[in-house]
Amino acid sequence: MAEPTSLTPCPPWLLGHWQDVYKRHEQGSLPHALLFTGMPGIGKKQFVRFVAEALLCRHTNAQTGACGQCDACAQIQAGAHAELKVLNPEGAAMNIKVDAVRDLVVWLQLSAPRDQYRVALLDTADAMNHNAANSLLKTLEEPGERAVLILAADKPGSLPATVRSRCQSTNLTLRDQPAAINWLTEQGISDAAEQLVHANVGPLVLVERNSGEWQASRQALQKAWLDLFLMRASIGKIVDSVSDLPTTQCLSHFSHWAMLANKKHLNLPIGADPATTELVSEVHQGLDSEQWFSLYDRMQALYRSDSASFKTQTVLEGLFADIRTMTKA
Ligand SMILES: [Zn+2]
Questions:
Q1: Are residues 164 and 266 in the same domain?
Q2: pLDDT digits over 270-322, tens only?
Q3: Distance 67 CA to ligand 1 centre (A)
Q4: How close is the Cα of 55 to the center of ligand 1, in Å?
Q5: Which residue range(s) make up the domain with 242?
Q6: Is residue 298 in some structural domain?
Q7: What is the number of structural domains in the chain?
Q8: CA of 143 to the centre of ligand 1 (A)
Q9: How many angstroms separate the alpha carbon of residue 45 from the centre of ligand 1?
């Protein structure tokens, strides 16, 4: 039995996107497959969950989505709406498995009750492996009556073109920038407008980056990166200093910095963030452009592989030892 939940609010800056969906719903012309993309932190997952709930509600509206009062809303809140299925990534590799998609396909072929959508929600659609995505194709072409598939993807490029072309795609943007600034201000971010312009990420990531915890871990990673390249400490010591952080967080920072170091070698612009610019300037001479690129490539491959579930210590020890060998050569 699922835990009771509350209804999902629409991220305020995305309300205009909901109103587009609502209009199609009102006109009875809602496409049977919707794909939402957009920059990190724009609120894709929250938005698609909101849309799924709003479409199931009996008295949905353009301003707030689900009413929170009807029997459908009560079922959603009880985690037990019969016409809603959510497909989440699972396992160490965090994939959506082909068997899960096949079950979903069978379910979607049954017709939904009268005057009711049947909604399938895949908020991490790019986590479908190739076979899983292929299994979804036929359903995307001929879903059951009143079936709606709602997909969100950080990396829509990882979805097969055949899947993308069968969905109506919407790139979620900061349609209502003042609403985003208001919301960020409420979260305690004082220079929200400026950060939004420069950060190239959505409000949700900005909030995370302004948290004390994120700042502290970024500083620890930055120090580790400098210590490694400037030979200021042993590998064991450096790894220890960041071994409490998730492997993925370490790899995403380090691979980003490696990519920027390569850009610096190539005299390409590396962005405006002063702390990052300084960090990259201090270490970029340690390796040549080709070495930075292969290091970036390797960390990206690690990031995407199962190694994300390995201990940080194991992953970093091997990586750092090889970096030290390269810098000495
Ligand atoms: Zn309702």
A1: no
A2: 876 778 888 999 999 999 999 999 999 999 888 877 665 678 888 899 999 99
A3: 4
A4: 9
A5: 211-328
A6: yes
A7: 2
A8: 25
A9: 20
